[in-house]
UniProtKB/TrEMBL annotation:
One of its GO terms (molecular function) is endonuclease activity. Residues 105-158 form the HNH nuclease domain. It comes from Candidatus Brocadia fulgida. The keyword Nuclease applies. Keywords: Endonuclease, Hydrolase, Nuclease. This is Endonuclease. InterPro entries: HNH_5, HNH_nuc, NA-targeting_endonuclease. Pfam families: HNH_5. The keyword S-adenosyl-L-methionine does not apply.
Amino acid sequence: MQYIASLESSVLVLNKFFMALHIISAKRAFVLLCKETAEVVSVDEGKFNSYDFYGWKDVSLYKARSGLPEEDTTSWIKTVSFEIEVPKIIRLLFYDKHPQSNVKFNRRNIFARDENKCQYCGRRFPTMELSLDHIVPKAYNGKTTWTNIVCACTECNKLKGGRTPEEASMRLIRKPVKPRHSPILSLKLRSDRYRSWKQFLNEAYWSVPLK
């Protein structure tokens, strides 16, 4: 059995009404399962099955022992005494609030919106090698907003300095906009690993192409 570095795998969180809320790590998902504040929602051949932590542990044990064929998208965690599959979806049993309609303005979402690409040279970088650039610099009263902040690599950020792109003879590869939906969620939907999430999202997300 192949083990993927799984504790940081992404898990979709639903409220008690099966509405998508946000994405968390597998590590956080297992904490919620062990506290019995959430259950696993497994989509099998179009049917929904729910399991508490121990039920999911038994399902994982059965899969591991039966030699059932695995999907390439399956992640597992191995402990001293047992193996358990990382769920792709969990549901909060006591949370009835509706998802937020507004996308949070933060560093993580900006990187996701720009797909970790420097918006000046177009190359993709690890997050730790990217910074945020004010297109119109603060010195020129540039605002810290979706439409004035982009990802930039260290070299391009240094080259641009405290100037506008025009002053630095640099061009943006794409005009920044405020995303209508979670950029992180949109990126995840392009992967086969998270195809089952689609069933819990509204139709606005269904237009995102899946590989």
